[in-house]
Amino acid sequence: MRRLRRTKIVATLGPASSDQPMIARLFAAGADVFRINMSHTTPERMRAIVAAIRAVEAEHNRPIAILVDLQGPKLRIGAFTTEAIMLEKGASFALDSTPTPGDAGRVHLPHPEILSALAAGDRLLLDDGKIRLVVEKASPKQALTRVDVGGRLSARKGVSLPDTTLSFSVLTKKDRTDLEAALDAGADWIALSFIQRPEDIAEAKKLTRGRAAIMAKIEKPQAALCLGEIMDASDAIMVARGDLGVEMPLEKVPGIQKQMTRVARRAGKPVVVATQMLESMITSPVPTRAEVSDVATAIFEGADAVMLSAESAAGQYPAEAVATMNRIAEEVESDPTYRAIIQAQRAEPEATGADAIAAAARQIAETLDLSAIVCWTSSGATALRVSRERPEPQIVAISPRLSTGRKLALVWGVHCVVAEDAHDQDDMVDRACRIAFKDGFAKSGQRIIIVAGVPLGTPGATNMVRIAFVGTETAPQE
C-alpha cells in the first residue's frame, strides 16, 4: 500500500466508521492514522476498535498508527430553575459556589479552582463562545461578571477561559483510566486536550513511561503563548483549530496555524492540522471549494498530517472524505509551486551529528537525483531528522520494531517497513536495495542513499551515509 503523497491522513473513527470492514475501506482510501476520541468512547469500545485496526494492519502488512485522544477537563456551569435564561448585554451575572439551581442573576460553577483563579478583567466564554462575560470582581466563592455578549443560556453549557491559567492537572480521573487502557491496548500516540503549559505534558510522560508518544493539542491561547516549551516537551503537536477559534478571535487562527506548523518543522516534530477541514462532507459527497483550499493550504505549509473529525467519525460519506483528502494531497504535491514553498521554509540543521547527516543525505540525493533515501532506524529518530529536511526523493524507513513503524506512520514522507535488523553493513546495503526495489521506490540501475547509525541497532547514533546501485537482481552494486 504505497502512498503517492508525502502528507499523511488522520481519520477519526466513530459510529459511522468503527467496524473492521469500514476501517479497511478508510485505509484503502488513504488513511494512515486512526484517531479514537475518548470523549465519545468507553475503554471497552476502544479496545474493540484497536483490535479491528490491528486486523486491517495484519491483512495489509503495513504499519498503521493509532492515536487515542483523551477528553481532558470539561468545565461546565450548573443547572437553572427553568429550562434556560436570557442574558442581556450589560447585565450583571454571578457564578458562584452555591450548588442550588440558578436564575437570570446567577448560576452554580462547580469548579472551585476556576473561582480561585479568576481576576478582574478575565473573560469567560459560555456555550462555545456564544455568551461572553467579563469578570468585574472575583473571590474564591463568587465571580461577579458583566455580560459583554448576551443570549440564551441553558444548563450544563461549557465554560472556556481564554485569559486564565488554571493550576490543576489537565489529566482528569477519566483521562488517567483511559490512558492506562490505551497503553494496555497498544496505542501509538496519546493526544492531550486543553493543555496550558509544558508541565501538563511532563505529567503524561511520567505515566506513559515511553510506551506511547505524546501529542500536545494546541487549543488554548495559553498554550500558544508557550509553544516553544510545549514543543520541547512533546513528541508532536496538533493545531486544534475548533477550540482555538472559540477562545481567540477567529481571524487570528490562520496565522497561529502557520506559526505552529513552522515551529514544529524547525523542531523536526510532526504537526497535525485538524478541525472542520472538510466539514460539509458530513452530509455531502463533495466538499466546498473553500474547504479544498483550506486543506491545500495546510499541505503547502508542509504539515505532516491533515485530520478528519466528524467527517469520518459520524458523517454520511466517511470513505469519500478520506479519498477526497487523498486526492487533494496528491494534487498539491504535484503542483509546480509545492517544492519551492517547501524549500523556502526549510530550517537550517541543528548542530548535531544526526541533523548534519540528514541534511547531507538530502542534498546528495537531490544533487545526484537519487531515487530514495533509505533510513535504518531503531527508535525512529533517523527518519524524523530526514523528514525534517522535506527531501524531494522518497523516504523509506526500515525498522526492526513494529512500534517504531507505527509511530512513523504519522510522519511526513516516511514509508516504513518493519524488518529484522541488518547483520552487518553489507547486509544493510543489500536489504535496503531489495526493499526499495520491492516497494517500488527504485528501479534496476537506479541509485539510493542509505542513512544509518553504526554500530547497527544503537538508537540515536545516526552517523553513516552510503550510496548504492539497485542491481538487476535487486542486489547492490556499489
Describe it.
With 478 residues, this protein is α/β, with parallel strands linked by helices. It has 3 domains: 8-72 and 170-333, TIM Barrel (Alpha-Beta Barrel), CATH 3.20.20.60; 84-160, PK beta-barrel domain-like (M1 Pyruvate Kinase, Domain 3, Beta Barrel), CATH 2.40.33; 353-477, Pyruvate kinase, C-terminal domain (Pyruvate Kinase, Chain: A, domain 1, 3-Layer(aba) Sandwich), CATH 3.40.1380.20. Helix content is 37%, strand content 23%. The chain is built from 17 helices and 22 strands. The strands form 4 sheets. It has an 8-stranded parallel β-barrel, surrounded by 8 helices. It has a 6-stranded mixed sheet with strand order 6-5-9-8-7-11, with no helix packed on it. Strand 12, helix 5 (198-208) and strand 13 (213-218) form a beta-alpha-beta unit. Helix 1 packs across helix 2, helix 2 (43-60) runs parallel beside helix 4 (173-185) and helix 5 (198-208) packs parallel to helix 7. The protein starts with 7 loop residues before the first strand and ends with a strand. The model has no long low-confidence stretch (mean pLDDT 94).
Measured between the Cα atoms of the first and last residue, the distance is 29 Å
CATH architecture of the largest domain: Alpha-Beta Barrel
Count of discrete structural domains: 3
Oligomer: single chain
- Can you list the strand order of the major beta sheet? 1-2-3-12-13-14-15-16
Q: So what's the CATH class of the largest domain?
A: Alpha Beta
Low-confidence stretches: none
